[in-house]
Amino acid sequence: MLKIAVCDDERAVREEVTDLLCCRNAEYCVTIFENGAELLTSAHEFDVVILDIEMPELDGMTAAVQLRRTFKDTYIVFLTNHDEVMRDAFKVRAFRFFSKPLNPGVLYSTLAEIEREIQSTVKLQIVSKGAQLMIRLSDITYLEAYGDGTYIFTADSFYDTRQQLVYWNKLLKDRGFVQVNRNHVIAVDKITGYNSRSVTVNGIEFGVSRFKLSEFRTAVERQKTVT
User: Fold this and answer.
1) Are 112 and 137 found together in one domain?
2) In whole angstroms, what is the distance from residue 89 CA to residue 69 CA?
3) Sheet holding 140-146, edge to edge
4) Average pLDDT per 10 consecutive residues for the chain, totaling 227 residues
5) Which of 27, 89, 174, 196 has the greatest number of C-beta atoms within 10 Å?
6) CATH number at residue 23
């Protein structure tokens, strides 16, 4: 789940943004900061920073410049009432600007876009047949248990790993994957059809265990909010 920082000197704005985030996904990890100095002294790294530009002492643009020096991949989203600051935003690779009052639809569509981008770039390090490899999470369609190991399948290949399925399920369960039965973990965004008993991924049908049905339905609903 996304780790999100909300930094604004106005309490009402902080509460509004936090409420909107929690309404979209209760599993978001949201941390609140009252000013840029607090944000910069935090020991945490965030996926997304929602940052007010007009703040006393240390304004949002200055905070963003310093933040970018340490965290190259953080998505910075500015809150502002002034369009003229957009020129400076190129210096910190700002992802979006939100005007006040905040439009929930714009916020949610932006978060969905960020989640898709993160998912498409994250890579998984594996050892297959004695070789260390990196594969993109977005390329994986499903995982299948065998004996003491696991096969990881992409659309056009597969990899033989020595870790058991329970290991991979724990690693991937919050990254767009869900276990549907004893032997299979699937990529939720690769689903092409499903019902209460089975799910189809990449043209292959998998049974959905009744013990996994609730978890499966939750994962599918969560994916809908991303797409």
Assistant:
1) no
2) 14
3) 158-161, 149-154, 140-146, 184-187, 177-181
4) 93 95 91 95 92 88 91 90 63 84 92 87 87 91 96 94 96 92 96 94 94 92 72
5) 89
6) 3.40.50.2300
Domain that holds residue 57: 3-120
- For residue 222, which of 1, 63, 33 has the smallest C-alpha distance? 1
CATH of the domain at 201: 2.40.50.1020
From 58, 90, 120, give the residue that closes a domain. 120
Count of domains for the chain: 2
CA distance 208 to 119: 24
**Per-residue pLDDT tens digits for 133-151:** 999 898 999 999 999 999 9
3-state secondary structure (DSSP) of residue 117: helix
Distance CA(189)–CA(158), nearest Å, equals 18
On whether both 66 and 139 belong to a single domain, the answer is: no
**What DSSP letter does each residue of 25-62 carry, written as one string?**
-TT-EEEEESSHHHHHT-----SEEEEES--SSS-HHH
Tell me which residue has tokens 């050892």: 127
CA distances from 41 to 6, 7, 8, 10 (A): 14, 13, 15, 19
pTM for the complete prediction? 0.66
